[in-house]
Amino acid sequence: MRTKWCRAFPGLAEQVAQARHFVASMIVEGGPVDDAVLVVSELATNAVRHSRSGSAGGWFLVIVGFGDGLVRIEVVDQGGESAPHLCDATSQEESGRGLLLIASCAKDWGVKNWPDGRSVWAELVWEGA
Predict the structure, then answer these.
(1) Around 59, how many Cα atoms within 13 Å sit in the side-chain half-sphere?
(2) What local confidence, expressed as pLDDT, does residue 80 receive?
(3) 32, 40, 68, 123: which has the fewest C-beta neighbours closer than 10 Å?
(4) Which residues share a beta bridge with 63?
């Protein structure tokens, strides 16, 4: 990635909307803004709901990278009991499909574990970049 921007957010549910606005402001005309906003919304929500980032005093970090015809959206959280994974698409549960959505629109995605947390990222193709 040639250029990166990042911003830290308090680990509160209402901050997910702020993360969406941050990412949308980084994508100029012709970029994959809708997919990028979807990705950060799902990843930030997961950070707040399923990691220590959602605990009192918690935080998450959003990194937006640009280069080589790609936009990389990455959310760093404070880790938790379970690892991010794809759920069964046929499940009758009302939630749990966020990573499936991301996998369907991203060129690639993954999880990187750190000693004090993890990052979940997705790369989106930027046509004409």
Answers:
(1) 7
(2) 83
(3) 68
(4) 6, 74
Q: DSSP readout, 29-55?
A: TTS-HHHHHHHHHHHHHHHHHHSGGGS
The residue to which tokens 């921007």 are assigned: 5
Cα 39 from Cα 118, distance rounded (Å): 16
- Band (pLDDT 50/70/90 cuts) for residue 103 is confident
Query: Residue holding tokens 């046509």?
Result: 127
Q: What is the dihedral of CA 48, 83, 97, 58, to 10 degrees?
A: 0
Asked if residues 98 and 86 have their Cβ atoms less than 8 Å apart, the reply is no
Of residues 128 and 68, more confidently modeled: 68
Q: Residue type for 65, please? A: G
Residue 50 makes CB contacts below 8 A (sequence gap 6+) with: 80, 82, 84
Classify the phi-psi angles of 47: left when phi > 0, otherwise alpha if psi is within -120 to 50, otherwise beta: alpha
pLDDT value at residue 114: 87
Per-residue pLDDT at 85: 53
The secondary structure of residue 123, as a DSSP letter, is: E
Q: How confident is the model at residue 91 (pLDDT cuts 50, 70, 90)?
A: low
